[in-house]
Amino acid sequence: MTEETAEREPAAGPGAVVALREVGVRRYTTDQVILDGVDWTVRPGEHWALLGANGAGKTTLLRLLGALMHPTTGSVEVLGSRLGRVDVRELRARIGHVTSAQRVPQDLDAHTVVLTGHTGTVQPLWRMYDEAVRQRAHELLAELEIKELADRPYGVCSGGQRARILIARALMADPALLLLDEPFNALDLPSREDLVEAMHRLAEGRPRLATVTVTHHLEELSPAVSHALLLREGRILTRGPVEETLTGTWLTACFGRPIAVNRHEGRWWAYSGRQGS
Ligand SMILES: Nc1ncnc2c1ncn2[C@@H]1O[C@H](COP(=O)(O)OP(=O)(O)OP(=O)(O)O)[C@@H](O)[C@H]1O
């Protein structure tokens, strides 16, 4: 099995949330190839898991989707706008991007952090938040089941609570595309399960929302995850419906060691046997 087994992507057609064609990213300083030949379409209502070993290019791919960088070669279309031909600030405002790189003043309370999602700012712009906007922030906290955190400083919230606050913040713009870069990082088991459940509910309540989640662990995927893209050394190994892509064979190829995969009631788990056993 080689990279060439990733068949060519059919034309995206109108209405695609994301359409990447022959995308390459290269570092000019070192000439390092970070992404190469990436063809990918995400459609409304699809929920993608983005998997690959450390350094495979997952975060870079997510940054392209978030209009935070441009490709070196190929074309990136997000929400109908082609990068390079559009005001990226306007485009970014329509994309929800949850990443640990998000700067959040630690003394802001959770409700205010969510409000900053309305303006896409680090600090609150109070004159921009009317009663309806404030109410919406409360509703999103309630939807993520953290309404009791409204007045709590972000800095004292736990990792799982922060993840949900940042998701609520990202949803303030009512995005058609939600990007999540390792949202489960460092969560304990109950927090992980709460977040998996929250992601599931979110998907069910928003039939046209598309999501892309970078993760290292299949256990973190909600039953709503419909598709997966597996990256290896900057190239797509395989992409498509989870039934076809989240298999022991593909994950073994992706991570370079034997991996067995199981699924039960929509949830996944994976483990690696001893080499050669
Ligand atoms: N700004 C940069 N300057 C130099 N190299 C970079 C830069 N950004 C990414 N890279 C390199 O590109 C490769 C892919 O990085 P990326 O962060 O996209 O991988 P990843 O799959 O998200 O990894 P991880 O699972 O470890 O987070 C790595 O080798 C990384 O060192």
UniProtKB/TrEMBL annotation:
Stretches that traverse the bilayer: none
Cross-referenced PROSITE patterns: ABC_TRANSPORTER_1 (PS00211), ABC_TRANSPORTER_2 (PS50893)
Domain ABC transporter: residue ranges: 20-258
Keywords from the UniProt entry: ATP-binding, Nucleotide-binding, Translocase, Transport
PANTHER family from the UniProt entry: HEMIN IMPORT ATP-BINDING PROTEIN HMUV
Molecular function terms, GO-annotated: ATP binding; ATP hydrolysis activity
Pfam families linked to this entry: ABC_tran
InterPro entries tied to this protein: AAA+_ATPase, ABC_transporter-like_ATP-bd, ABC_transporter-like_CS, P-loop_NTPase
Protein name, as recorded: ABC transporter ATP-binding protein
Signal peptide interval: none
